[in-house]
Write a structure and sequence with these properties.
With about 425 residues, this protein is an alpha/beta fold. The protein has three domains: about 130 residues, 3-Layer(aba) Sandwich (Rossmann fold), CATH 3.40.50.1000; about 180 residues, 3-Layer(aba) Sandwich (Rossmann fold), CATH 3.40.50; about 40 residues, no CATH class. It contains 13 helices and 19 strands. About 5% of the residues have low confidence.
């Protein structure tokens, strides 16, 4: 899903790195013809001159065409938005450069990467491989990552449910070294990232760690069940287990995995893997320390399970899932695949103040409606209980996005087109 975008009104398209995924420039430019656009193309080989006539006849939406993006991404996006007369929440940045897409996220615009699908550390809102897919994303037919969509549809009444959703492919050295493939149902944003404030999947995962309310539970169960359904199509699943909790801790994954497996009639065995001794919190550790924390901490029961799916909540370094996979393989499992509810986004986009209370000016905070047990999300005033101002989930999300103006985009230089 586009976390930042209320509606797609225009695009900033970076094609200066060459034809994405081997598809000619003309096809990409024609794919975005219904939307006003600022497009960057290579100056070499007279590409600029060749593209200019095409850009000017696009269905009544002339493109502003420029040669090369030879300046910081945020500066280019900021100047393009000013030229288009639009706020960030109505614009999408499209590029074949993963780094450029990560940098553009700091401008609070939607992000689309034009590239073959494969494991990535930092995930954009969408990865597309063809002009048709790009059109599907911009029209709303392709909705983004499966878990994010399930969470948003459960959290916000009226959130549109698209026709198609995607899984995120995950690569981490600890898992890759074992030959273990991993997927995630969506992204997780830490509190240092401004998207943390408004991301339903992040909120529901954190809530599940303490208590499983009805609506958050249904969202996570639905996301996991749909993911397992996709994996079943690719390869047989003999049993499913989960990363066990540290000794004496709440097993928040157990009810989610048990219910998802029951929906699909897939065997679930919570006893085949256990944590034998406690270890420090992984979120408080970094680098090689994470691997050392979990080394030798888990035990697997040997059995006849051939192909196992291991469920984790959040993959950050992947060391915990890798250690569990290792002991399962050593216990005789033929294959282990990892499914995470979310993959942590390590390249944080700094937090900024957003939607504020119209009564007292305090920041509005996304909260779970726990009193009625529904688990729906709403925006409550940060000054509670002195101020009890509230807003419904989806209107509040749009207000949060719209609260970030173009002039707030930080850039090193000012670019004038």
């Amino acid at each position: 899903m586009f976390v930042e975008v209320n509606r797609v009104a225009a695009l900033v398209m970076d094609l200066s790195g060459g034809p994405p995924v081997g598809v000619p420039f003309e096809a990409w430019i024609q794919a975005v013809a219904p939307w006003p656009a600022v497009i960057f193309v290579p100056e070499a080989a007279k590409e600029y001159e060749r593209m200019a006539p095409l850009a000017l006849i696009r269905e009544g939406n002339p493109a502003q065409l420029y040669a090369n993006m030879a300046f910081p991404v945020r500066a280019a996006v900021k100047s393009a938005l000013k030229g288009l007369g639009l706020p960030p929440c109505e614009c999408v940045f499209v590029s074949s450069s993963p780094r450029a897409v990560v940098q553009a996220a700091g401008a609070h615009v939607g992000t689309v990467l034009l590239a073959p699908r494969g494991p990535m550390d930092e995930l954009p809102d969408f990865i597309v491989e063809s002009p048709d897919e790009l059109q599907g994303v911009l029209r709303g037919d392709i909705g983004g990552y499966l878990g994010e969509l399930e969470a948003a549809c459960h959290a916000f009444d009226g959130f549109p449910r698209p026709k198609y959703a995607l899984l995120a492919l995950v690569s981490r050295p600890a898992l890759d070294s074992l030959g273990v493939k991993a997927v995630a149902t969506g992204r997780y944003f830490a509190s240092a990232d401004h998207r943390y404030r408004k991301h339903p999947l992040t909120r529901y995962i954190l809530d599940a760690k303490g208590r499983l309310l009805d609506r958050p539970g249904r969202a996570l169960v639905a996301a996991l069940a749909n993911c397992l359904r996709v994996l079943q199509l690719a390869s047989r699943i003999d049993t499913v287990t989960r990363v066990p909790p540290r000794p004496g801790r709440y097993d928040h994954l157990d009810p989610i995995v048990r219910r998802a497996c029951a929906e699909l009639d897939i065997p679930y065995d919570r006893t085949m893997l256990r944590c034998a001794s406690d270890y420090p919190k992984q979120r408080d550790s970094a680098g090689a320390t994470r691997a050392e924390n979990v080394r030798g901490r888990f035990r697997a029961i040997a059995g006849s399970h051939q192909r196992v799916v291991l469920v984790d909540d959040i993959i950050t370094s992947g060391n915990t899932a890798a250690e569990c996979s290792k002991v399962l393989l050593e216990a005789g499992c033929e294959e282990v695949r990892v499914v995470a509810l979310a993959v942590d986004q390590n390249d944080y986009v700094e937090h900024r103040a957003g939607f504020c209370c119209p009564t007292c000016g305090s920041p509005m905070i996304l909260k779970v409606r726990s009193r009625d047990g529904s688990g729906a999300l709403f925006w409550g005033c940060g000054g509670w209980p002195q101020c009890r101002q509230a807003a419904d989930g989806l209107p509040g999300l749009r207000a949060e996005n719209a609260a970030f103006p173009v002039d707030a985009i930080e850039d090193d230089i000012e670019v004038v087109f």
